[in-house]
């Protein structure tokens, strides 16, 4: 059975995010219209950002899956990082809009009308977002898709803010302190502003060709050492990630008397092992005969 029959693929998940965002936006805007709460307004406005971000993710995923071409020989994988940066920027803009609405309502408090149906609709939207956020984060990590993971983390923040909004609105109604409603909206804006900064910071690291983390680097080194029978040493190992693809480059020192065919066989064995463990790996190996190799390496080299 192929993977596509077992799991949702990246495009299907991205399109699913658009449909979920539309449903959540409808529920939250209806809840706001029924209650006249600026807190629920801030929640609905964030859902509008979620919808725009979900559309951006669909476009980014479609672009990232385009094959390499003459102008993009390393592929289009980094398009997903651009989507995550755009999502971060939209979150910041939404936070500014919420700050403005909350400030106006703080100095001119609105009369709250809180029917139970409005609160239930907003709660239902939060549950829907929570379930889909868990799906996106889990599947995004499985598929090594930064756009899906970023979208999932954004939705998770939306869930937390929705819970806070509901609690605050109920507390404002119970105490009669209606100024608590816009104050809570300001806290929601601050929270999503922090989320936007985190998304932008994480995406910029990918755009800057950041290396894989120490745990994954150790895993790559172990795979190379376990599959390099016949070689002498590997050195100058470099890694970088671009979307779901990990680029792995290193020099492999082999005995000078080894034939080109045998050296190529060793490279194939290492490459196949790396591809099996990291399905989206792009591996480049530079062969060096022992008598032409650089001086012995002590920093990060792997002696077999």
UniProtKB/TrEMBL annotation:
The chain crosses the membrane at residues 12-32, 44-63, 84-102, 114-135, 155-177, 183-200. It is found in: Cell membrane. Residues 213-290 form the Cation efflux protein cytoplasmic domain. It holds the Pfam family Cation_efflux. GO terms for biological process: intracellular zinc ion homeostasis. Residues 17-208 form the Cation efflux protein transmembrane domain. One of its GO terms (cellular component) is plasma membrane. Its main location: membrane. Keywords: Cell membrane, Membrane, Transmembrane, Transmembrane helix, Transport. One of its GO terms (molecular function) is cadmium ion transmembrane transporter activity. It is a multi-pass membrane protein. Belongs to the cation diffusion facilitator (CDF) transporter (TC 2.A.4) family. This is Protein p34. The lineage of its organism: Bacteria, Pseudomonadati, Pseudomonadota, Alphaproteobacteria, Hyphomicrobiales.
